[in-house]
Design goal:
It contains 20 helices and 12 strands. By secondary structure, it is an alpha/beta fold. It has a 5-stranded parallel beta sheet, with helices on both faces. It has a 5-stranded mixed beta sheet with strand order 10-9-8-11-12. A two-stranded antiparallel sheet has the order 4-5. The chain binds flavin mononucleotide (FMN). Flavin mononucleotide (FMN) binds next to helix 1.
Length: 547
Amino acid sequence: MKILVLNGSPRGEKSNTIKLTNAFVSGLCEVGENTVETVELNKLDIKGCRGCFACWKGGEGKCVIKDDMPGVLEKILWADMIIYSFPLYYFGIPGQMKNMIDRCLPNVLPFMAEREDGVGSGSHMARYDFSGKKYVVISTCGFYSAKGNYDAVCGMFDHICGKDRFERIFCGQGELFSIPSLSERTNEYLGYIRDAGREYAGGGISDAIRDKLAELLYPKEVFEEMADASWGINKETGEKESECHVFTRQMAALYNRKSWDGKDRVLEICYTDKGETYQIKLTKDGYEVFTGTELTYTTRIDTPWEVWKDISVGKVSGSGALAKHLYTVKGDFSLMIKWDEFFGRDKNAVRESSAAPAAQKKKPLMAAMIGMWMVLWIAVPIDTLVGALIAAGVCAVMPLILHGREITIYDKLTCAAVTIMSVLAVFLHTSGTDTVFAGRIAADGGYLIFGLMWLLSAFAKEPLCAAYVKYGYGGGKALDNPIFVTTNKILSLAWGILYVILAPVAFLLQSSFAPVVSIIVCNAAPMLMGAFTVWFEKWYPAHVAAG
Ligand SMILES: Cc1cc2nc3c(=O)[nH]c(=O)nc-3n(C[C@H](O)[C@H](O)[C@H](O)COP(=O)(O)O)c2cc1C
């Protein structure tokens, strides 16, 4: 297929819209053999039509103006698909694009023709055969939504291409495609545009992708706050604002009120190299930005401006930079842990369409994993045979209990280990081994395996506790956070060592002389470790962050 892209943005290659168009074309090119030609209208000399009708009167369809338009007309005739890419200007198309379209008059004959699609009151016969051509119109606009802004554009293309004979992709908040710090969201959107291109080449864009394209990039209020801040001019006073101030205001605009957890916070950011400090007060009702240190902060970040900027555009990861002490954090560290909840995108808030979000699996359940071990440790020593059958039975129904949830490798290992220890207990019992001894081998052997599982997981990419708690820290992304991973490695190691030691201690105490001491030790030690865990998981990241 021969594809012609007509870029009608005065910004040329820097156009927001052309980013969408390029994504669409790359999707198209995933299907079949294509040749793509792009015409940058801003680089060409295309004068306005003089209205002399010389192209009609002369009979040959030749324009008398000497400029670059003949080359464009040739490409229009060459192409099988024409993609019009332009920004919305005053609810219509920009001048360069309009000039080019006006100068397409030589492509039609002067004679009147009836329209079969009922658009308008007539048309002109085509000079060439355009019947097989495909048309796509792609445009971004500056308001929060494209809805209601493209009536004139659609009306015009209905006349030019035929009623609804063109595919259209219109996107609001177009300027966001030029902001690197928002690239996570804009790239996600461009991904859907690419999907749309691929689907279009395959026969048509699906409703699922159309729904994705109809979603706002950001909620209206967030976008409008960011857009207003972006001009670097104070709305009330008209004074210029520094880039740190603009950046802080834009970041504050991303505050997601739903993340408020019952505690008002004051985030203080000191741009150390610029000597500027700003505060963002985060409450149930929204946010306020202050200059200086008027309020008492709950969390303070000291950072060079460049570091914070690099983090915002994804050049370095925030957690990685923190681990390297490129910036420091003082005060309440929970804000940093929940950063994505506070300043990330609320995915439900941008849904303008009625489509329900795709069903997601629920978080894994650590209690279910520990529960399997508990049954082994409690039931088997009480009655080896019945206890082992109960423990094996619990493992057998575990897939039902965990239905609809993520299942971790540690759930699977636990299920396998508890089943094996239960079978071992039954085997020892039936082969004549002392029943109490058989029970202890299974239960205390379970302590050992449990401990080894924790211990060895400390050397894995995803330590055991991380597999269950990462959901509170951004999910899979938490594993890129060195502080999160180190915290969980240390905790996994500590729990592992505890249980590897507890296994022989429990066995010796229980089978010799002190079953009561054994019960006390085996319960008190994990409780103390639990208390340590609660303290350590807060203390350690804050300790590293404070530098
Ligand atoms: C002269 C002018 C007129 C504009 N008119 C509108 C408009 O009517 N509606 C709108 O939503 N955005 C309007 N915009 C904003 C642009 O459509 C928006 O910034 C677009 O994303 C620019 O795309 P580009 O980078 O591809 O040129 C206008 C911008 C300019 C410069």
